Every structure is written in C-alpha cells, then in structure tokens.
Amino acid sequence: MSELTLFQNTLRQYLYFFLALLLGAILIIILKVIILKRIKAFTKKTKTDIDEFLVGLFEKMALPLLCYSVFYLSSRYLTLSPGIDKAIKICGMIFVTIQGIRSFIAIVAYAVEKYWVKRGKLSAAVTHNFKTLMTIFKIFLWGVGIVFLLDNLGFKISAVLAGLGIGGIAVALAAQTILADLFSYFAIFFDKPFEVGDFIVIGDFLGTIEHIGIKSTRIRSLGGEQIVFSNSDLTGSRLRNYKRMAKRRVVFTIGVTYQTRLTQLKEIPDIIKNVIENIKDTIFDRAHFFSFADSSLVFEVAYYVLSQDYNKYMDIQQEINFGIKEELEKRGIEFAYPTQTLYVNKQL
Prior knowledge:
Layout: E1 5-6, E2 9-10, H1 11-43, H2 50-75, H3 82-119, H4 124-152, H5 158-174, H6 176-191, E3 199-202, E4 205-212, E5 216-221, E6 226-230, H7 231-235, E7 239-241, E8 248-256, H8 262-277, E9 282-292, E10 297-305, H9 310-330
C-alpha cells in the first residue's frame, strides 16, 4: 500500500512530506507562542528598546521565512516535476529578496531615527526631511534588489544595464539643474547650514525659513511675501544665519555740539558705560570720542546684546537711547544737528 504511486510520488513520500510539514509548523508555533512571548516580556523590562525592535523585526521578517523554509524542506521528500520545482525556487528567491530588502530598510530607518533622537534634533522639519530621504533610499534599494533578483533568475540584464547607463547619462545632462538641487538638498540635510525657523539673510533678501524641499527652499520675508530659492542657489551663496547668533554686537554713534566743554566730553564715555551696564542682557564693550565731524563731535559706542531676538535688541537700543539722552540733559550737554555758520567780513 505504501508503494502506491500518485503523481510520481508514493504514499510513503506524501506521509513524510506531511509529517515534516506538521513538525515544522509545531516548532514555529512553539517559537512564536512560547519562546517569543517570553522574550517580549523580558524586553519590556530592559531600559533600551533595541531588543524590542530586533524581536519585532524577527517576528515580521524571519518567521515568514521560516514558514517558507519548512515548506521547502518538506517538499524535498516529494518527486516534483522540473516546472513545479523551479516555480518553488523562484518564489522562494523572490520572497527572500523582498524580506531582505524590507529588513534592511527597517534597520536603516531605526538606526537613523535613533541617531537624531540621541542628538535631540528629531523635530517636525527633521522628520519631514527624513521621510523624503527614506523614500529616495527605498526607491534606490528596491531598484538594486530587482536587478539582483532578475540576474539570479537567469535574465540577461547586462544589455539593459548598458542601455540604462547611456540613458542615465542623457537624462543627467538634460536634468543637471534638478540633480544639482537634489544634491544640494542632501548637503543642506546633512550639513545643516540652516533649518526651518531660522532667520537668514542672502544678499538683498532676508526672512524666515518655512520649508526645505528637494528642489527648492521657501522663505517668508519680513514684508510677508514668500521667496522661493533653488537649493543650489542657497548652498552656493554666502548667507547669514541670525538664529544661531549667540549674541549680537551693536555699534552706533552719537554727536554732541562743538560748544561742549572738554571736561564734559571726558565724562560722556563713562555716562554711556553706566547706562548700558544697568540694562539687562547687555555687555558693554567700549565708548570713545571718535571724530570731529562737520557739525558735531562724534562718539562711537559698541556693546553686545545677549539674545538673537531682533525685537529684544531694538527694545534694548531704545532703552539705551532714552538713558543717554536723560543723562546728557541733566548735565546740559546738547546733541548736535546739522548746522552751518556763515562768517561775513565787512570791508568799508
């Protein structure tokens, strides 16, 4: 009875096939229900989440591969036609390739995300840029995986790759501006010369970064309009990022009249110094009698504002101006304004 043949296989072969399949299924169920369950309970007690990630990755990616492996090994007990045997191997190769690519993408995404979390920079802008880069990375990886799969399946892809290479050169020449902006986007993402929310100045344009895209970056100007720059323009330009300014150095001048006495002139630097030092978030640098102008005696003042906020800087400058005017008025020192004196020599 065991030697009865059905579809080129005896009953004994079918029995071995089903027993191997059943045994493999039982082992997988034990692994999933008992062993993995205990490992998950243990990982929840640890401080790190990398073990939970690895267990989850094993459950999603490795268990399906184990199921296929059980089926494939069990099928070795059967005498299969060349077509069916080839189909099983092809399906296995496709399945392994897909699971391998998905696993690699998941590992890369986890590693990059943890890197940004460790640096404390996983903001909404970084998340958006990260998703964009991961999309590009996935397209590239799936392309490489498909080429690898077709090559292992016996397709002659050398001619196709040669054609794609020539076509790629033609496309690159035609779209070199787009590619330049794309590579500039990568430079902006990794080098971080500016981020969303930074206030920057580029030539005659200034504003706050609103969006950083693959092709262009959008800036909201102080006037309210939106300015769009290509990424290559930004990476190729000298820009000033005021958001990263730890303190602002301010230089300004005041002028007093020529009628001011020398003793009063010598008091002015100390007067200015006292005014600035009594204002919060400022560091006095210097105050000097700078020059003799056409209608005034000019003093140059320099100090630091310990903030990057422009409005706060203006509030402090206003308070300094009020304080200087108040102190000079107390001493009878007058500010100069444009005047012209005409001397007439009368001859009889």
